[in-house]
Structures are given as structure tokens and as C-alpha cells.
Amino acid sequence: MAKSVDEFNKKRLRSSNITVVISIALVLFLLGLMGLILINAQKYSDYIKEQLVVNAYFDENFDVKDSVKIAKLEEETFKKVQTLAPVKKATYISRDMAAKEAKKTMGIDSDALFEENIFPSSIEVALKPEYVDPAKIDEAIKVIKAVPGIVDVKNDSTLMVDVYNNLSRILKWILGFSVLFLILAVVLINNSIRLKIFSKRFIIKTMQLVGAKRRFILKPFIIEAVILGAIGSVIGLLALGGVWYYFTSQIGSAFVQDTNQYFWLVILVLGVGIFISVLSTIFATWRFLKSNVDDLYYS
């Protein structure tokens, strides 16, 4: 009879541990997924901002006799623009390239309607993402315009402001959902741990009544919480890694390639799983340590 009771208790304990591990794994999988979305959303935000270019123009007065001299000056100016702090990437657009682009835009195949060198050469500048900001864009344009050889800088400031505001709004929503998932992770893991500790409330109180110190009683529960939290976190990370591997194999380089960001996400997920498990265990166990024997029947 005693053996069957022990077997029943062991099965119940295993079932309780498996439930806690699965709960931790599922919650941390969702939390890690939101972290991956947040990391890559920032990348795409920066990518879109880099597509919003400004155009720096050279002097449109062009004399064929001075073409060699002008080409040299424009090359020097182009190199200076490339080294400016706000500049992410600079592309030189020659007069011939500008004429071809204009023909393509207007749908004209003939050269009859174009005079030679009607369009000035220019530099197409992609700004660094942090400068695609209503508060910094004017400063960036002034820096570019101050370069000797540049006579004018044009950009669609309205479009840049609209894109910046929309991207900021989207990132805030994603960040908000990430925080919400973190809160849900805390609540769900805490509830799973509390249910597990609740099933052992009589054992906790019995150990206390026979003289065991609170630290002695807490120690095995904390060790178990660390193990369960680590196992649940690893399972959640493995599932997350499998899902992410599938998507990256399908889409490829569309995702962030910086492994440092993923490393810190793994550390965060693992840390959250263990920390919440340990903290919930301490609070739940401490509650029964402070309660009276009669209260155990009504908890």
C-alpha cells in the first residue's frame, strides 16, 4: 500500500514538473519570438530610412573645354561628401547618367529633345538612419551644402517626416507588445510555480514544525526552480531556433545577421526563465512558511 502511494506521489510530481516546464517553454518561446521581431523591425526601419536619399548638385554651368578640371573637382568633392558624419552612402551621378535617367522617366528614346549636358551632375546621398529625423535632417543638409563645390541640396522633407513618424509609431507598438508578453510571461510562469508549490504546502509546513529552518526548507525548492527554469528556457529556445531557422532558410539575408543581438536575446530569455521561476518559488514557499496550519486547508 505504501509503495503504491509513493508511486502515485512520484507520478504526480513528474506530472507537475512537466507541466511547469512546458508552461515556461511556451511562454518564453512567445517572448523570444517577440524579441526577434523587435530586433528585425529595427533593422527594417533603418533600411527604409536609408532609402530616403537627398541629392547634392554641382554647378550646372558646364564648359566642355574645362571638362577635365571640372571632373577632378567633382571627384574631390565627392570624396569629401563620403567622409561626412551624416552620410551612410554616396553615389556619384554624372551628367550622362542624369540625362539617361531623365529620358527613362519621361519615356523618351530620342536625343533630339535634349541638349547636350542639360542636367547637372550630382551626388545621391543616403543618410545614416539616426539623421532621418525631423530634428536632425536640416542639420545634415547644412553639413552637405557646406562642402565646396556643392551649390544646392534638395530632398523631400515631407516624405521623410511622414516615413519617420510612421516607423516610430510601428516600433512603439512592437515594443509595447514585447513588454506585454514579458508581463504575461511573469504572470503565467508565476501561476505555474505557485500551483506546484501549493501541492507541497503540507510538506513545507511539516518540515517547519519538526524544526527545519526556513533557509533549509527553501534551498531544495530554489534548486529545483533553477533546474526547471533552465530546462523550460532551453526547450523554448530550441523551438524558437527551429522556427527561426526555417524562416531564415526561406527568406535568407532579409534578417539581421549580427549574431551579438541574438546572443543577448538568448541570454535574456534564459535569464528571465530562471529568474521568474526562482522568484515565484521563493514567494510561494515563503507564503506557506508564514501561514498557520489551519490556513493550509483554505489556501
From TrEMBL:
It is a multi-pass membrane protein. The keyword Transmembrane helix applies. This is Cell division protein FtsX. The keyword Disulfide bond does not apply. Residues 177-292 form the ABC3 transporter permease C-terminal domain. Pfam families: FtsX (PF02687), FtsX_ECD (PF18075). Required for cell division and gliding motility. The chain crosses the membrane at residues 20-39, 170-193, 221-247, 262-289. It comes from Chryseobacterium oranimense. It is found in: Cell inner membrane; Cell membrane. Keywords: Cell cycle, Cell division, Cell inner membrane, Cell membrane, Membrane, Transmembrane, Transmembrane helix.
